[in-house]
Amino acid sequence: MVSFMADVIGIRDDMYIGKGNAYMREVADSVSQGYAAGILEQRPTLVNLQCDIDHPTQSMADAMHLIQHFGSLEDLKGKKIAMSWAYSPSYGKPLSVPQGIIGLMTRFGMDVVLAHPQGYEVMPEVEAVALKNAAAAGGSFSKTGSMAEAFQDADIVYPKSWAPFNAMEKRTELYGNRDMDGISALEQELLAQNAKFKDWECTEELMNLTKDRSALYMHCLPADITGVSCEQGEVAASVFDRYRDPLYFEASYKPYIIAAMIFLAKIQDPVGKLAWLLQRNQQRIA
Predict the structure, then answer these.
(1) How many domains does one find in the chain?
(2) Taking a C-beta distance cutoff of 8 angstroms, is the pair 167, 93 a contact?
(3) Same domain, yes or no, for 88 and 195?
(4) DSSP 202
(5) Pick from 32, 67, 154, 211: most CB atoms within 10 A?
(6) Rounded to two decimals, what is the model's pTM?
């Protein structure tokens, strides 16, 4: 999906494994060629709204939420975050959120734990990035097949459903071949696979395993809430309700992240421009 706003292009292509990010880069190259040829008066800013590899606007909004919650970027170092798969009655949710989280939070020296049942692995190249980041920043990246183990003494938990990497590769191939019967069969296969792991739910019992029994619960929204949006889902209603306001704060940072990305792309000296704006000290238009 490509959307245009003035001289900004927002691109989202998160469902086609091995193709989404490559497509975005192809669009970027085409835009650059159009600008170099004089066809475009200026080179539009391209914003990755979500792709098969990453969800940068979400993961950076999540980072901003954590910075605000814990006090500073430096205060994130050593904090344990559990990025865990959780059950969903739907299928085909993108891998970009968990991949974005393990790829970004390891840069801050956090102890990142990826938890999922067997068969729900993420892209190996993203895991390699997480390991490299953790080594450079003094944090850690580990994996477990136990949601309880991931939640143990965690400062932050992020239970979120996603589809198996191999299944998403297969789905990309089926869509490419316009094999809709194959898509329907794969959907039923994935729903049956998900149903084997209904106990992967963020419950009060699991939250009690976290640090001081009060870890920050996070989700990119909308969440599958047990007894509310579905019969059984990713998170118990009592847990979700307790963190409703923090979740809305988490979501509120995304427009600012997108604006910051556009600002950085448009302004040659962003630090100087921000200092000038602060010095002007003019009230914003209401």
Answers:
(1) 2
(2) no
(3) yes
(4) B
(5) 154
(6) 0.90
